């Protein structure tokens, strides 16, 4: 099945794909084009340069990235920023309305991971890992715990603040910030086997390393889990 060349949604208005007044269908017209959601995901923790987005999504061509950014900007989901620190650069960032999509993406994530077809061995970006932790955190446990966590994923560094059952995460960049506990792995997938697969840090093949009080490390890992898989029909 071939798709017509997609131009910006805003110029075509509601009804571009489905000719349907349903608000959920309209949402898909806004963000349902191929690569739109991964691009939005990569901007959830702050603005990024075109080249950074492209590097995070190696299967995405420069042409398609340009088209999607233009479409998302026209729809009011993405905006362009000029920054001067640490060096002059033009960034793409989510608007406040775009940032509100995190709740939608969390709901989709919790729903879709219940499918037996979900494959955790596929590549995972560092931002996707950080957002998955915000999604899969048991917000009812340890609500009185206030702690800071440093995450190193390959070359990228993030700082998390767990407080009141909510995990806030920001990029650290080159800043040196002390944290109560820390985790480091060569890639995002290495975290999955410990945080969601509940394998021990010293198990064979585990490349995730942790720093800090072992009891606090175990306590933090214990806050995360995946919904049960749905049984397939006979």
UniProtKB/TrEMBL annotation:
<dbReference type="InterPro" id="IPR036390">
    <property type="entry name" value="WH_DNA-bd_sf"/>
</dbReference>
<keyword id="KW-0804">Transcription</keyword>
<feature type="domain" description="HTH hxlR-type">
    <location>
        <begin position="22"/>
        <end position="120"/>
    </location>
</feature>
<dbReference type="InterPro" id="IPR011991">
    <property type="entry name" value="ArsR-like_HTH"/>
</dbReference>
<dbReference type="InterPro" id="IPR002577">
    <property type="entry name" value="HTH_HxlR"/>
</dbReference>
<keyword id="KW-0238">DNA-binding</keyword>
<dbReference type="Pfam" id="PF01638">
    <property type="entry name" value="HxlR"/>
</dbReference>
<keyword id="KW-0805">Transcription regulation</keyword>
<dbReference type="InterPro" id="IPR036388">
    <property type="entry name" value="WH-like_DNA-bd_sf"/>
</dbReference>
<protein>
    <submittedName>
        <fullName>Helix-turn-helix domain-containing protein</fullName>
    </submittedName>
</protein>
């Amino acid at each position: 099945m071939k798709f017509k060349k997609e131009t910006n949604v805003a110029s075509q208005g509601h009804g571009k794909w489905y000719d349907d007044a349903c608000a959920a269908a309209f949402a898909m017209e806004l963000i349902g084009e191929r690569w739109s959601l991964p691009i939005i995901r990569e901007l959830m923790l702050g603005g990024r340069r075109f080249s950074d987005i492209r590097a995070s999504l190696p299967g995405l061509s420069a042409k398609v990235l340009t088209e999607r950014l233009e479409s998302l900007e026209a729809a009011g989901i993405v905006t362009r920023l000029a920054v001067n620190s640490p060096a002059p650069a033009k960034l793409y960032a989510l608007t406040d309305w775009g940032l509100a999509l995190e709740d939608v993406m969390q709901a989709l994530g919790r729903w879709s991971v219940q499918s037996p077809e979900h494959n955790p061995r596929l590549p995972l970006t560092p931002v996707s890992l950080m957002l998955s932790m915000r999604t899969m955190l048991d917000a009812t446990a340890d609500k009185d715990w206030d702690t800071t966590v440093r995450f190193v994923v390959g070359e990228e560094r993030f700082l998390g603040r767990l407080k009141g059952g909510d995990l806030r995460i920001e990029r650290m960049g080159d800043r040196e910030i002390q944290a109560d506990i820390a985790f480091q792995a060569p890639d995002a997938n290495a975290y999955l086997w410990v945080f969601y697969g509940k394998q021990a840090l010293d198990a064979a093949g585990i490349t995730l390393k942790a720093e800090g009080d072992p009891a606090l490390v175990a306590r933090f890992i214990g806050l995360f889990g995946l919904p049960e898989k749905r049984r397939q029909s006979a």
